[in-house]
Amino acid sequence: MDENHALDAFAALGQSTRLDVFRLLIKAGEVGMTAGDISDTLGVRQNTMSANLSILSRAGLIRNKREGRSIRYFADMDGMRGLLVFLMEDCCGGRPELCQPVLNELACPC
């Protein structure tokens, strides 16, 4: 991931509703959620949610799949991985033991 792409991702996550959406989709995992379910869960109007989902999608943080009349959204784990790698690419100045606690914290306990 280059710096401009990282800045787009941070800008997308720099708004409360979009951050909530992204975290909700991470929790939903590979099942994902429909736009209507996301709106209902977060108490956000559907037209506002649509704009937020579009911004997250352009930033490479979520992806979608059409299911008939609905669109199901998923956290884009490759996009999230790219952002984390960007943040940590120069981590620890060649001392990987300093990064290990951070990596352990990131590892999914499930």
Describe this entry's structure for a reader.
The protein has helices at residues 3-13, 16-28, 35-42, 46-58, 77-88, 96-106, and strands at residues 33-34, 62-67, 70-75. With 110 residues, the protein is α+β, with helices and mostly antiparallel strands. It has a single domain, classed as Winged helix-like DNA-binding domain superfamily/Winged helix DNA-binding domain (Arc Repressor Mutant, subunit A, Orthogonal Bundle), CATH 1.10.10. It has a three-stranded antiparallel β-sheet. A hairpin with a 2-residue loop joins strand 2 and strand 3. Helix 1 (3-13) runs antiparallel to helix 4, helix 2 (16-28) crosses helix 4 and helix 3 crosses helix 4 (46-58). The two termini are 27 Å apart. The model has no long low-confidence stretch (mean pLDDT 91). It comes from Sulfitobacter indolifex HEL-45. This is Transcriptional regulator, ArsR familyy protein. Keywords: DNA-binding, Transcription, Transcription regulation.
CATH superfamily: Winged helix-like DNA-binding domain superfamily/Winged helix DNA-binding domain
Strand order of the largest sheet: 1-3-2
How many angstroms separate the termini? Answer: 27 Å
Instruction: Classify the fold: give the CATH topology.
Output: Arc Repressor Mutant, subunit A
Count the domains. 1
Shape: elongated
Question: Which CATH first-tier class would you pick?
Answer: Mainly Alpha
Number of helices: 6
Main sheet summary: 3 strands, antiparallel
* H/E element order: HHEHHEEHH
Number of E-state strands? 3
- Which percent band covers the strand fraction? 5-15%
CATH architecture level-2 label: Orthogonal Bundle
Gyration radius from CA atoms, angstroms: 15 Å
Low-confidence stretches: none
